[in-house]
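Researcher: Please translate sequence to structure tokens.
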Amino acid sequence: MVYDFSYQTSTSKDKGRLTAIVDIGSNTVRLVVFHGPSRVPLPIFNEKVQCGLGRGIDETKHLNPDGILLAYETLNRFMKLVEVMEVDHVSLLATAAVREALDGPKFVAEIKHRFNGDVHVLSGEEEAKLAAFGVLSGLPEASGLLGDMGGASFDLVALNKGSFSKHDTTPLGHLRIIDAAQNDHVNMSEHIAQTLQPLTWLQEMKGLPFYAVGGSLRAVARLILHQTDYPLHVIDNFSLSLEDAQSLLKQLATLDQNDLDKIPDISKKRLETLPAAISLLREILDVVQPSHLIFSGFSMREGQFFLSLPDIIKNQNPLISACSDLVQREGRFGPQGEEVYNWMTPLFSNETDTRMTLRHAACLLHDIAWAEHPDYRADHGLLRVLRLPVAGLSHHDRALMSACIYSRYKGDFDHRIAKPLRYFLNEDDALWTKTVGAALRLAHTLASGTPHLLDQTRLEVRAGELILSLPENEDIFIGEAVAKRVQTIAKHMNLSGRLERG
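Model: Translation complete:
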């Protein structure tokens, strides 16, 4: 399924550089401008206004009048911004409230009249599958149940190794749940359970992961991170076991408004949606009994961006592509990371596919902190990689990658800043990352950023020894630093190490 909801702005110069998506949702109206085309969307502007278009829609069958006025004001600013920014393509997408309201067509026509913008009113199926494309853009082989909660709808999609199967759109948006249940927790749970009951196909999803999508569900994730003093505040791919999720959600349901008001980084209007979002998650977990609850930082906007990409970019590995793009923008040695990756691979013949990919990414980012003060390069590299803006990485994988870079800069794992590494990594993980980090440090010492210089050397394990083979009659590689760093790698691998000429 391919969607194309784009049109060119009047000032477009066909640079193929900026893509904007205006999401006219049931609760918020949001503008996101992406730099592209790139495999992982890089937002350069992101602004939302909570207009509440869908508030009261079940009772009135119309859009909220105050929300309409605020939406026009918001869209006026957004459309002027995309013109000034010389955005190449703009997609205006409207969701459940506009789709269902009796005055939805009039609202869409007025937008066309005021802003010369064609609004595509998404069907329930389109809305659900765009959210799925957003998740799949980071997890191409994902299997499980996806649930996207908006203001007026809750969309469900079954994923099977990256493909779609069954799907449904339900009226379980947070605005509707609050209106129907009069903000009472017991009423909310009963209303949600009754609405989900006819969806018998959900029983087929038992034991598979549940992917939580949407702003209100992300707010629940922020609340959990805060309440548990979790060491990494990255929502994408934040994962909880079923038992932990159910226990935490039960605790969150007991918080009163005074407790919620103390939570940082969640707006007052978003806080108002939390009881409905918590109730929905509790009910869906009870029905589906998933193996894990996984929160996604990506949604339908990223799905729409992903669909706009050429196939050759869609097929790239999202992590490797993101790291390559970052090095291209900020690196000083160009693509030398590929040489480093190939050069050290003989040391890791038995590693898993996941570790191989993470090592590849770490090699691309091996010089990421080059512009920092030497005393802070390890800290900067750790934090930068740990918080890398790419989808699909588990928090454990983020820790593995950042530990490789931290080790490359000789970071101290007992230091306070390394707390996330100690939280996520076991002894085997730590040893692997220290080995990778030491190899990265040796590679930098040997090549110093000079293209193809590293190719004149060879690193291998032979007869219980770690051997660095160097060219005959070439003294550029001979020095105390080289010998010491070979021994450091050998120590991590429980081997002896030596240099070999010829």
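Researcher: Any highlights?
Model: Confidence is low (pLDDT under 50) at residues 10-16.
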